[in-house]
Design brief:
The chain is mainly α. It contains four helices and no strands. α2 crosses α3 (77-98).
Length: 110
Amino acid sequence: SGGPLNDQAARIFVTVVYANAFGFAITVVLTMGRVLINERVPRAMQGRVFAAHTVLSNLVAIVPVLLAGLIADGVGVEPVLVLAGLAALAAAAWSHARGTRVLPAEQGAG
C-alpha cells in the first residue's frame, strides 16, 4: 500500500494521538473543576467535598464503562465509538447552550 504503516498500525497511531489529545483536554477540565472547588468551598469543608466528588465521579463512571463493554460485545466496537463521540458532541452542545450563569457569590461583586 501507500505508506510505512499497515492498516492496524495506522489505527493504533491515530488512537494514540487522539488519546493524548483527550488526556490533555480532560486534565485541563479537571484542574479547572478543582480550582473552582478550592475557590468556592470553605476550607473546613474542602476535604469532604473533594471526597464526595471523587466517590460520586467514580460511581457514575462505572455504568457507562460496563454498558459500553456490553454493547461492544453485541454490535462491535466501531458503533460504540461513534455513539460515544455523538454523545460527547451532544453534551458539549448542551453545555454551550446553557451558557454561563451567575452564581450567587458573584451577584454582589458586579
